[in-house]
């Protein structure tokens, strides 16, 4: 069957309509595919699907592989209603100049732009920038006082944020960025921003962001400074993020900073009571500190779930004291109690309370100055990986450790060393690349994406040494999306101490819903570069749910598909529909559903670092050398006009 689609060529930036056949991994003769019994592991019953999106093929030509390709039509009412034309509109790219601001430019603790050794602005734009990090990530669309705004965050060690205003065509719903509307959003009140990743729009209409890959405070102590260089001797990962943050945000002054400043959840509100809007930034220290992919707030406006991105990480829940206010609450960590090791696995969840705090309490601890050694006593494990008496053995993203919390430092441990402390209390810290979260109100279900089922999630992996080995699954390098059922109205959720949790949105279990399919292809095949089947997910990342439509939208961050895809997965029928493809070497981030902005619906999409995550040995590396537009960008699929029903 031939499919029509909209192609936005990266080189020319001109939209064109084309007809291309769709390749199918299941019919290829040069492939080995690990085919599960069903790509859909758990399906829902209930409401009839109302939206059908036209499918796009996996890109085959060089032009397709270098383009943003999006579904071009939507049919309402299960195919019996009308069909409307939609497409992808690119709204803004990194390095765009608007209102004298350069989109993605990094600024220091005085909110002044900084430059590299050649005098060029430091830009956070992945492989196309001049600072470590991935570039533009989550963008929220906010409405206030009849106006439409966007808040964009950048995934670098100096985590920039920018706000700008959008105009909307009243008849077509088309969006565009208003000239001279951009502002840099100061983060001085929270020690600056850090590796901003995914996010959401809260039920009360603010942008809720994230700070991923928190620095290891055990490695970054006062003793690790090098006075001659003004840098830390140790760095975080390949990009040496903390050194870059010190150099560019704090201008090399190590006395001004601490690794404990980063790894929290930031919130941005916008006020539009005057011509020039005001953006207000708040960092929520009481929500804990880890490698946050995002925090997702439930409809009660109190309960939030937080995904921890990395190896040997945890899964967390925060329950605010007051609805619509995340400045004070209780933090919980999940324990996986496995009930099945088949396919993507299944478990019942137990919630372990870590503590209760306010933002102000934790901020006061930071202001007073604190180091890892102020919170914990630590000794090296013995040769047989045991710990001395009085020390708890754990295995988290920082490896095998023997720790003891110092007297009176439990609150600091809970909210500044959330992952380590939760492991000490018996929570599970074995998840691998825990990513996006979204809620399905139609079936009262949360979804969590796991990019890979590997490492600590396997049985007996080296990452289990010293840990609980709670998760014991078979490896799946393509990943899975999990469903989590929310307690019913007549049930009372309790924590591990049998104390009632003050929330009506507590999840009680976790099980595979859809998983990727491993595959291999012969040299010279159209799919030579694919190690996960083209018609299944690979490294699921950010996700969003279309309320009332039975559609779970799944974005990818993968090198197992050379072009990353966004999928629409029907949770009732199990049908997987590819609806967007990004250029070679890029990542899809920020898919987020807006059902009604002045009568129109939009699905956002960020194309992060196009042609960036590549290797000269890749079959399609020539595309990198010929590409002329490598900037990260933000746009929307739509507009959806639900009056067409």
Structural account:
This protein is mainly beta. It is 7% helix and 39% strand. It is built from 7 helices and 43 strands. The strands form 11 sheets. A 9-stranded antiparallel β-sheet has the order 22-23-25-26-27-35-34-33-32. β1 (2-9) and β2 (15-21) form a beta hairpin. The model is unreliable at 1-29, 35-39 and 226-239 (pLDDT under 50).
Q: What does the average pLDDT come to?
A: 90
Estimated structural class = mainly beta
Q: What is the radius of gyration computed over CA atoms, rounded to a whole number of angstroms? A: 24 Å
Terminal CA distance reads 26 Å
Global shape: globular
Instruction: Kindly state the percentage of residues in helix.
Output: under 10%
Strand order of the largest sheet: 22-23-25-26-27-35-34-33-32
Number of helices: 7
**Main beta sheet:** 9 strands, antiparallel
Low-confidence spans: pLDDT under 50, at least 5 residues?
Answer: 1-29, 35-39, 226-239
Work out the number of β strands: 43
Strand content: 35-45%
